[in-house]
Amino acid sequence: MITAHAVRAAVRESFDRVVSDLTDLVAIPSVSAAGHDPAQVSRSAEHVSALLRGAGLEAQVAAVPGPDGPGRPAVLAHRDGPADSPRVLLYAHHDVQPVGDAARWRQADPFAAERRGERLFGRGTADDGAGVIAHVHALRLLAELNGDELPCSVTVFIEGEEEVGSPSFRTFLNTYRDRLDADVIVVADSSNWKVGVPALTTSLRGVVQVDVRLDVLDHALHSGQYGGPVIDAVTAMCRLVSTLHDERGDVAVDGLISRPVAAPGTPDYSEADFRADAGVLEGVELAGTGDLTSRLWTKPALAVIGMDVTPLQVAGNVLSPSCTARLSLRIAPGQDPDAALTALKAHLEEHVPFGARLTVTVGELGPAFDGAADTPAARAAHWALTSAFGAEAVNIGQGGSIPFIATLKETFPEAQVLVTGIEDPDTRAHSEDESMHLGDLEHIVAAEVLLLARLGGAVAD
């Protein structure tokens, strides 16, 4: 039988190899967004496939058609356990976000991982390179500790298009349904509570994204000659956007639901900690009502994430005839995305200023996730995380959205879904200077070994 002490020692002894493999993976600029080299995503998939074969699995690169052309390549790998042992599906993704403004990174090349203190910096170090590498090395070490066998049957699905909304995800699940079907699904793509404190994510908000366009003129006008009777489209848009929140900062769209905060075991989140984690400037007041965890996890949130306006460097004395804003609405668990979209459109139509012409173009619609059930797999995960980290695991929600998790649950309704943490509040995923805390990475690998061993009945408490 495998012991927690033996697992922790084995991970510690081979941890240089873990970091080296993460560094090599980060070096492949596997940006899946349009306009970037798709060959790098293919290269990344082949690299991950080789890593999994090196860990003792049969692995292949696979892709299915997407709605707008071929899907980006994923990796599918498998290794049998004993007959009638639990079937476990491990998920992560090998594609990454663009680097953004390279000048704002401390290192010259965001794809050349750089260690500073206890953190490894680079695009994809945490999101989701750490998830990929945790799966690879957990499987390798588990087999080594268990007589070159796995105690359960394991399938690994490493997606290649998560960062662009997983457009071919449902088709992939349907195509490989028999191979992906599992009793337990482990998604390594969320966050821990803080460095050194592990967490299971038990709720995720859904997302509704729309582009809102206002037209007020059929051509631009001189702002002095015609200003006054005509409100320019940018000002009209500002007035419309201002109706989306009340004076306290709560979302003011009728028909959206809120829920009580997450499951038992949810930690308190102090305002001081939140301000530090989020980098809120001194003197800036926090928006909304209720405790911070409910505002972050189980109440709706709405933001303008983009707007087409005239840049300052080319601005003239002109009334803009049109303006488009992109709105991102995060919806509470239990809220239907289509119902939320209907409510948002109704609000916009009701509040259009000065009779401007409104056009709403629907973008991403993603369901929320509620995984708060007290299942045997969740109890095994809490034990494994607590044993690996040496700190009690907690349940948390996430304000962000991972819509494919709801798709997994819909496709495999009997599976127990676990969403595990890779990141921490200072990871800065999607931003400049993304990083992974190496101490947490060591604990995460150990936790996954222990979880799989526990699910397969091969661990001594």
TrEMBL record:
Gene3D superfamilies recorded: 3.30.70.360, Zn peptidases
Domain named Peptidase M20 dimerisation is located at 204-353
User: What GO biological process term is on the record, naming one?
Assistant: proteolysis
Molecular-function annotations in GO: metal ion binding; peptidase activity
Domain of life from the UniProt record: Bacteria
Keywords of this protein's UniProt record, alphabetized? Hydrolase, Metal-binding, Protease
InterPro entries cross-referenced by the UniProt entry: Cyt/Met_Dipeptidase, Peptidase_M20, Peptidase_M20_dimer
PANTHER family assigned to the protein according to its UniProt record, in alphabetical order = BETA-ALA-HIS DIPEPTIDASE (PTHR43270), SUCCINYL-DIAMINOPIMELATE DESUCCINYLASE (PTHR43270:SF12)
Q: What is this protein called?
A: Acetylornithine deacetylase/Succinyl-diaminopimelate desuccinylase
The record lists the lineage as: Bacteria, Bacillati, Actinomycetota, Actinomycetes, Actinomycetales
